[in-house]
């Protein structure tokens, strides 16, 4: 999986960190996640413990989107066989499927391709009746890949808004509160359009805390945010929306546009959402690999969030505490954390992503021998084409240059120069970031 692994294995601790990363991504792979939670026995389809009688439906279709949607769809095809009559998903990579059409879209900014594919998906949903079972596949990346501008908004309005939110350090919950109110399908609106069909959501979470209404901006989930909440996001982070976006949100706040469906909306009477994989899935797999290698694993959290360079500091402090006092674990140990950190770009910005900033900040702050690795499980860290990085304090020879690169949000080129970037290419899944700190025994 890691293309440049041989160049990264500088020690046994590096080897363990890389093993943990690969295990984490493997466990969250869409095929593995789907086959562990979806099964069929005769005409009974079971999804995460909920059963569906296929005899009750004339049509069974798969629709949806996300970076891992192709892999989930292929697994669903293998389970359903001839019972599946069609459907359409949009993903970032092409995947060979037998029955369901796949369109390749763009990410992280929406494009004409995304809008065209989403329009066709919505047509399929609109045609569904009481005898239709819709398997709605939703994974990380769906917020951009499933694009349907609301009202008189244009694709350019969505692109500009998304770009400003992403570069402004806005957390995913805030970004999605805005996206839901600029869309014709997000924020529960796919459920409204699908009614009275039965909808079974098949979700892989890329959201800290697994708030289902935030995954992919919650097309099949009730929305508790409002047009007013969306406007507040721009005020809170001192960002200016495009004029058309401001006018649309203001019209919604004044009641001129219907709100997204709330939890008591009857559109959800025949909707059930099933979470089949998340960040904890990845961390548990990494912990198992660490234990097999003779290291005591500790999963610190799957809810990590905040500015990447700042998040790194308490993590390395825990590693130092473990070395000094055996708290919270006696080395050799592996500390694991997951979630989604952010980068607030200063000045003209540089190249890299939050995971590369976590590693560079961590090794600069660390007073010890821990190996620090961090990756985005989708294989693309921020705007870069690498998954993340791995390093320890001995990796950094010129600390002044390294600090300058970090301050300039230019961690990527510096880490690449010292051969510390982790290269996987797109992994086909997305359950946020995984951070691994390997704390060797004092004798190592």
Task: Please give the structural blueprint.
Elements: H1 5-8, H2 12-27, H3 30-37, E1 38-41, E2 44-47, E3 50-53, E4 59-65, H4 69-80, E5 86-91, E6 101-104, H5 112-126, E7 132-138, H6 142-145, H7 155-167, H8 172-180, H9 189-194, E8 198-204, H10 227-236, H11 243-253, E9 271-277, H12 279-292, E10 296-307, H13 308-325, E11 333-342, H14 354-365, E12 371-376, E13 388-391, H15 399-407, H16 411-417, E14 421-422, E15 433-439
Parallel strand pairs: 4-5, 4-7, 5-6, 7-8, 8-9, 10-11
Antiparallel strand pairs: 1-2, 2-3, 11-15, 12-13, 12-15, 13-14
How would you characterize this protein structure?
The chain is 38% helix and 20% strand. The chain is globular and about 65 Å long. A 6-stranded parallel β-sheet has the order 6-5-4-7-8-9, sandwiched between helices. It has a 6-stranded mixed β-sheet with strand order 10-11-15-12-13-14, with helices on both faces. Strands 1-2-3 form a 3-stranded antiparallel β-sheet. It has helices spanning 5-8, 12-27, 30-37, 69-80, 112-126, 142-145, 155-167, 172-180, 189-194, 227-236, 243-253, 279-292, 308-325, 354-365, 399-407, 411-417, and strands at 38-41, 44-47, 50-53, 59-65, 86-91, 101-104, 132-138, 198-204, 271-277, 296-307, 333-342, 371-376, 388-391, 421-422, 433-439. 55% of the residues are buried. The chain is of the alpha/beta class and 444 residues long. Helix 2 (12-27) runs antiparallel to helix 12 (279-292) and helix 13 (308-325) packs across helix 14 (354-365). It has 2 domains: 5-26 and 280-439, glycerate kinase, domain 1 (3-Layer(aba) Sandwich), CATH 3.40.1480; 29-148 and 183-225 and 260-277, Rossmann fold. It starts with a helix and ends in a 5-residue tail after the last strand. GO terms for molecular function: glycerate kinase activity.
């Amino acid at each position: 999986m890691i293309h440049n692994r041989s160049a990264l294995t500088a020690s046994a601790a590096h080897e363990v960190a890389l093993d943990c990363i690969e295990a984490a991504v493997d466990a969250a792979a869409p095929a593995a996640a789907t086959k562990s939670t979806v099964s069929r026995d005769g005409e009974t389809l079971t999804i995460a413990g909920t059963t569906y009688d296929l005899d009750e439906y004339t049509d069974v279709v798969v629709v949806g989107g996300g970076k891992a949607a192709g892999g989930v769809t292929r697994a669903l095809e293998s389970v359903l066989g001839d019972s599946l009559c069609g459907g359409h998903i949009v993903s970032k990579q092409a995947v060979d499927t037998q029955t369901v059409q796949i369109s390749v879209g763009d990410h992280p900014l929406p494009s004409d391709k995304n809008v065209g594919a989403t329009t066709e998906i919505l047509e399929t949903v609109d045609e569904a009746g009481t005898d239709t079972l819709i398997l709605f596949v939703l994974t990380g990346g769906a917020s951009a890949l499933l694009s349907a501008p609301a009202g008189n908004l244009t694709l350019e309005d969505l692109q500009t808004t998304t770009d400003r939110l992403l570069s402004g350090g806005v957390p995913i919950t805030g970004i999605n509160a805005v996206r839901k109110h600029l869309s014709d399908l997000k924020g529960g609106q796919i459920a409204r359009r699908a009614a009275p069909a039965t909808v079974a959501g098949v979700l892989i979470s890329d959201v800290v805390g697994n708030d289902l209404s935030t995954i992919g901006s919650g097309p099949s989930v009730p929305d508790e945010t409002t047009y007013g909440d969306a406007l507040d996001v721009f005020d809170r982070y001192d960002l200016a929306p495009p004029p058309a976006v401001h006018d649309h949100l203001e019209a919604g706040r004044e009641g001129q546009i219907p709100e997204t469906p709330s939890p008591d909306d009857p559109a959800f009477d025949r909707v059930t959402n099933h979470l089949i994989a998340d960040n904890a899935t990845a961390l548990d797999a990494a912990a198992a690999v660490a234990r097999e290698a003779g290291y005591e694993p500790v999963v610190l959290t799957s809810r990590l969030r905040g500015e990447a360079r700042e998040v790194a500091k308490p993590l390395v402090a825990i590693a130092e505490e473990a070395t000094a006092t055996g708290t919270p674990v006696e080395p050799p140990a592996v500390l694991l954390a997951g979630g989604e950190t952010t980068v607030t770009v200063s000045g003209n910005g540089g190249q890299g992503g939050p995971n590369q900033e976590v590693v560079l900040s961590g090794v600069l702050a660390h007073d010890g021998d821990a190996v620090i690795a961090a990756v985005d499980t989708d294989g693309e860290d921020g705007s870069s084409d690498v998954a993340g990085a791995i390093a320890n304090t001995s990796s950094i020879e010129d600390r002044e240059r390294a600090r300058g690169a970090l301050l300039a949000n230019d961690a990527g080129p510096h880490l690449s120069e010292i051969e510390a970037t982790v290269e996987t290419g797109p992994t086909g899944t997305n359950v946020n970031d995984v951070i691994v700190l390997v704390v060797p025994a004092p004798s190592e």
